[in-house]
């Protein structure tokens, strides 16, 4: 990553190779050691010590974190100041901006750099010619991309509801809210006494087009005196290389996101055969603990579902993570039936609310330390009434 001082994209494997050769062993042995490390997904064995650890006995129920996923996106178009503001009013402990870059290098809150699904860009004839097709993380996408717009241009757009068929009530806000910058989200959080939980989106891709996300993120955290804080900021990513870099640059808790399938794209791009499946093993979480402070797994990694959508027995992931000092913040808890396990659905109507409180209590009983949720009000209530013994 460009952030490595004086050694762009060299990676710690190479650093380890040099170190092993010089200090410890003949090159043959060093290569063997590196091959083993590579297979385990270890690319960086040094860096700042983790800044956060699981409290002894696990996180107390009252301290389970409620993270407003893209704001209170169950009630407002996601990644808008209105959505973040509502999440804060509902009692969220953290608000979560996903981050992408504009053409002029400003970080803005969007889940994707392709913005046709969450803004009214298609209704702007002056930008019609910017519609294009790009390969993002190996996937061909057609639409409009934030990196082709200056911040001033992006600010002329307005957010729209991503899933209008499920969240029709949110469409009344279509066209009313701008795309916020990271700084605007930070300003809101600081003024209201909540934390921020930014996620860098497509970091390898943004590196490849000269708009690396990490430099402006670090700069923003430093400018706001948030780069050495343990309870105001978490930084998360589905990729690994950028988290290892950030671990050397800032002193905030880092969270390795773990998808339900696939592999971190930075490793895919480098031909390193580490998958998310391998990252949830005991060995996998031990590797993560060398550079991060927590994991953010797809909730199905904590309690899987069968083919019909009913919950199975919890996996060992929470215990395995806790045993190496990692907190566990699964995603994403949403009230509508379509997102709930079959056990907690109220009907066949995908948009109707089911028993999110019941689902949350089950995950609380397994020992998670926080939850990403589109419905912070419900999670705050669920946390308040949770009784560990009764729910176990
Ligand atoms: O960051 C936690 C969760 O938000 C990851 O999923 O796709 O909603 O960013 P996504
Ligand atoms: Ca996210």
Written overview of the protein:
The protein is α/β, with parallel strands linked by helices and 392 residues long. The chain has two domains: 1-40, no CATH class; 51-391, Phosphatidylinositol (PI) phosphodiesterase (TIM Barrel), CATH 3.20.20. Helices cover 32% and strands 12% of the residues. The strands form four sheets. Strands 7-2-1-13 form a four-stranded parallel beta sheet, with helices on one face. The protein starts with 10 loop residues before the first helix and ends with a helix. Mean pLDDT is 89; it is low at 1-48. Bound molecules: SN-glycerol-3-phosphate and calcium ion (CA).
Question: How would you summarize what this structure contains?
Answer:
The chain is of the alpha/beta class and 392 residues long.
Number of E strands: 13
Fraction of residues in H or I helices: 25-40%
CATH class membership of the largest domain? Alpha Beta
Cofactors, ions and other ligands in the entry: SN-glycerol-3-phosphate, calcium ion
User: How much of the sequence is in beta strands?
Assistant: 5-15%
- Backbone structural class: alpha/beta
Averaged pLDDT, please? 89
- Can you tell me the CATH architecture of the largest domain? Alpha-Beta Barrel
Please outline the major beta sheet: 4 strands, parallel
Low-pLDDT segments: 1-48
Overall number of structural domains: 2
Radius of gyration: 21 Å
Q: Which superfamily, in CATH terms, is the homologous superfamily of the largest domain?
A: Phosphatidylinositol (PI) phosphodiesterase
The secondary-structure element order is: HHEHEEEEEHHEEHHEHEHHHEHEHEHH
Main sheet strand line-up: 7-2-1-13
* Global morphology: globular
Our count of helices gives 15
């Amino acid at each position: 990553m460009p952030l490595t001082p004086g050694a762009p994209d060299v990676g710690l494997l190479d650093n380890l190779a040099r170190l092993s050769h010089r200090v410890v062993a003949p090159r043959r042995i060093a290569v063997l050691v590196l091959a083993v490390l590579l297979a385990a997904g270890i690319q960086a064995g040094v860096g700042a010590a983790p800044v956060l650890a699981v409290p002894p006995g696990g996180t107390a129920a009252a301290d389970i974190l409620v993270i407003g996923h893209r704001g209170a996106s169950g009630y407002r178009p996601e990644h808008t100041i209105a959505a973040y503001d509502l999440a804060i009013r509902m009692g969220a402990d953290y608000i979560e901006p996903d981050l992408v870059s504009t053409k002029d290098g400003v970080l803005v809150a969007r889940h994707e750099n392709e913005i046709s699904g969450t803004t009214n860009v298609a209704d702007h004839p002056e930008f019609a010619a910017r519609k294009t097709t790009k390969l993002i993380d190996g996937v061909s996408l057609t639409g409009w991309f934030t990196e082709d717009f200056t911040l001033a241009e992006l600010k002329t757009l307005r957010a729209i509801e991503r899933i209008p068929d499920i969240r029709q009530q949110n469409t009344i806000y279509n066209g009313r809210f701008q795309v916020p910058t990271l700084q605007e989200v930070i300003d809101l959080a600081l003024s209201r006494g909540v934390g921020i939980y930014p996620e860098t989106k497509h970091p390898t891709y943004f590196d490849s087009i000269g708009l690396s996300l990490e430099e402006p993120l670090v700069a923003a955290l430093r400018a706001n005196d948030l780069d050495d804080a343990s309870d105001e900021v978490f930084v998360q990513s589905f990729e690994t290389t950028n988290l290892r870099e950030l671990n050397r640059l800032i002193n905030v808790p880092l969270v390795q996101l773990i998808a339900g399938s696939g592999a971190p794209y930075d490793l895919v791009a480098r031909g390193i055969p580490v998958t998310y499946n391998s990252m949830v093993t005991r060995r996998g979480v031990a590797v993560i603990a060398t550079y991060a402070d927590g994991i953010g797994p797809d909730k199905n990694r904590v309690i899987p579902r069968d083919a019909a959508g009913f919950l199975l027995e919890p996996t060992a992931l929470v215990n395995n993570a806790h045993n190496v000092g990692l907190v566990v913040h699964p995603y994403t808890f949403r009230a509508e039936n379509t997102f709930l396990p079959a056990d907690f659905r109220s009907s066949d109507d995908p948009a109707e609310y089911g028993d999110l409180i019941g689902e949350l209590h089950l995950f609380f009983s397994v020992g998670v330390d926080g939850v990403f949720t589109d419905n912070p009000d419900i999670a705050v209530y669920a946390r308040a009434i949770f009784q560990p013994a009764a729910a176990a």
